[in-house]
Amino acid sequence: MENKELEKKMMSIVSEDGLVEEVEVILAFEFKDTNKEYVIYTKNEKDENDNITVYVSNVDRSSGEPKLLGVDDEEEWNRVKDVLRELSKSE
């Protein structure tokens, strides 16, 4: 069986200070009951335990141009953590 590396999905993000970075998208998903979109991505940085750091953002499309926002609601964050747990089980 041929071993093909999956094509990485990349996106550009612009920080508040205008810096543009290319990041790798791990997963994009939406909670149907709230119609909120999220993206899990990485800059492929490693922490002190050699784990790759991942970021989670809420995608706001209300202004036409997508913006990445933090997840500041505790219930919403708990739901996102459930998705992260399921993702880590499948790897």
Structure description:
By secondary structure, the chain is α+β, with helices and mostly antiparallel strands. The chain has one domain (9-89). The chain contains 1 helix and 5 strands. Strands 1-2-3-4-5 form a 5-stranded antiparallel beta sheet, with no helix packed on it. A hairpin with a 5-residue loop joins strand 3 and strand 4 (52-60). The longest helix has 16 residues, at 74-89. The radius of gyration is 15 Å and the shape is globular.
Topology:
Layout (H helix, E strand, L loop, with lengths): L8 E6 L5 E12 L4 E11 L5 E9 L6 E3 L4 H16 L2
Antiparallel strand pairs: 1-2, 2-3, 3-4, 4-5
The geometry reads as: globular
Mean pLDDT: 88
Q: Strand share of the residues?
A: over 45%
Helical content (DSSP H or I, runs of 4+): 10-25%
Order of helices and strands: EEEEEH
- As residue ranges, the low-confidence spans are none
Largest sheet: 5 strands, antiparallel
User: What is the number of helical segments per DSSP (H or I, 4+ residues)?
Assistant: 1
Total individual domains = 1
**Looking across the biggest beta sheet, what order are the strands in?**
1-2-3-4-5
**Count of β-strands:** 5
